[in-house]
Amino acid sequence: MDAIQIRDLELWAHVGVLEQERRDGQWFRLDIQFQLDLSAAAVADDLSTSLDYSLAIQALQRLAREICCLTIEHFSEQVLDRLQELYGPVPIGLRLTKCSAPVPGFRGLVAVERSRGGGTPPRP
User: How deeply is 62 buried, as exposed, middle or buried, from its count of CB atoms within 10 A (0-12, 13-18, 19+)?
Assistant: First the structure.
C-alpha cells in the first residue's frame, strides 16, 4: 500500500496533567501516515484521486488552538477523529510527541502511537 506522510508538524496546545501545562500550553510534534492507493493520482496527476494533506494540516492547527485536556492520549484521539471527519475510513497511523515533558531530571521525549482502520504509525 502507498502512503502519504506528514512529518514533524509542530503544534502548540494546552494539554497536560499539570495545571500550568493546560494554562500556558507547550509544543507537540505530530507525524501522520495515511495509507492509500496513490496509483491513480500518480498516473492522472489529479488531486481528487488522492488526499489533500493541506486540509489535514489546517484542521489540526485549529484543533491545537481549541483543545484543552489532560492527556496526550486524549489529544491523539481528537486528532484521529478530525482526520476521519475529513477523509473518512482511510487507514491512519500517528505518533504524537510531547516535546518537553515536565518531569524533574528528564530530558527526553514522550510519545504515543495510535492507529485507525489498520493504519501504521510512521517510523522515525
Answer: exposed
Instruction: Round to whole Å and give the CA distance between 40 and 100.
Output: 41
DSSP H or E run through 113: strand 110-116
What's the start-to-end Cα distance of the chain, in Å?
19
Instruction: Give me the sheet containing 3-15, strands edge to edge.
Output: 68-69, 3-15, 26-35, 92-98, 110-116
Domains of the chain, each with CATH number or no CATH: 3-116 (3.30.1130.10)
119, amino acid identity: G
Phi/psi at 61 (nearest 5 deg)?
Answer: -65, -40
CB 119 within 8 A of CB 30: no
- What mean pLDDT comes out for the span 55-80? 98
The pLDDT value recorded for residue 60 is 98
pLDDT of 124 above 80:
no
